[in-house]
Amino acid sequence: MIPTITAFERSPDRGQGLARDMRVRWALEEVGQPCDVRLLSFEAMKQPAHLARHPFGQIPTYEEDGLVLFESGAILLHIAERHPGLLPDDAAARARAIAWMFAALNTVEPPIFERTMAIVIESEKPWHAERLAMLEDRIRVRLDQLSAWLGEADWLDGAFSAGDLLMVTVLRRLGSSHMLDAYPALSAYVARGEARPAYRRAFDAQRAVFTAAST
Ligand code: GTB
């Protein structure tokens, strides 16, 4: 059965692929699994039909054979465990790749997400500049550490994995900030992810949704 995922009917990122359905689309493309996409307005996301799928009324969700999942990390792990290509076969390498999935979501994404929120909803506050500087310092600590870990390697731990997929989607959110410009290894890492054919297909699919909604 073809899984169904949910995505924004009209993404606020205007087709830049920054919303979290992008990581699910990319993972499905990596493993060659087609999907149906149910597009939702912000209003529909808060209606009972969607709240039954997602307790917080958000996207993405994933439905397959009666299974309904929310949380992009859990969805990725589910996909990666059921299809070859996103997690190594070796048990120790697999555990490390899963650790990188958690690191992307729990350690690197939070300050990056907070920075976006500070810009979107706190820019009028008198303490905005101070908070933004603090968040950017926190982000730089993580970028320094991540860059040191990556060194000259292509991927975080051997072959490309779901950990890299999530980390690239998280780092992409810094695009407009130009913070990655000071980290050539990380910029090249993101570019490597974006150059993958599966990424391109997923990016084009989400962009087509925005283009169709705008015409
Ligand atoms: N922890 C959850 C997960 O990983 O799945 C978080 C899900 C989440 O934040 N979903 C967002 C959502 O549904 C969309 S991705 N928001 C609507 C709501 O909460 O009512 C976050 C997002 C939104 C917009 C941009 N953008 O415009 O650049 C980027 C990312």
Can you walk me through this structure?
This protein has 215 residues and is α+β, with helices and mostly antiparallel strands. It has two domains: 4-85 and 198-214, Glutaredoxin; 91-196, Glutathione S-transferase Yfyf (Class Pi), Chain A, domain 2, CATH 1.20.1050. It has nine helices and four strands; from the N terminus they run βαβααββαααααα. A four-stranded mixed β-sheet has the order 2-1-3-4. Helix 1 (21-31) runs antiparallel to helix 7 (162-172). The protein starts with a strand and ends with a helix. The mean pLDDT is 97. The protein binds S-(P-nitrobenzyl)glutathione (GTB). S-(P-nitrobenzyl)glutathione (GTB) binds at residues 12-13, 18-20, 45, 57-60, 71-73.
Could you outline the blueprint of secondary structure elements for this entry?
Layout: E1 4-8, H1 21-31, E2 36-40, H2 42-45, H3 48-51, E3 61-64, E4 67-70, H4 72-82, H5 91-121, H6 128-150, H7 162-172, H8 184-194, H9 197-214
Parallel strand pairs: 1-2
Antiparallel strand pairs: 1-3, 3-4
Helix pairs in contact: 1-4, 1-7, 1-9, 5-6, 5-7, 7-8
Bound molecules: S-(P-nitrobenzyl)glutathione.
S-(P-nitrobenzyl)glutathione binds near residues 20, 45, 58, 60 and 72.
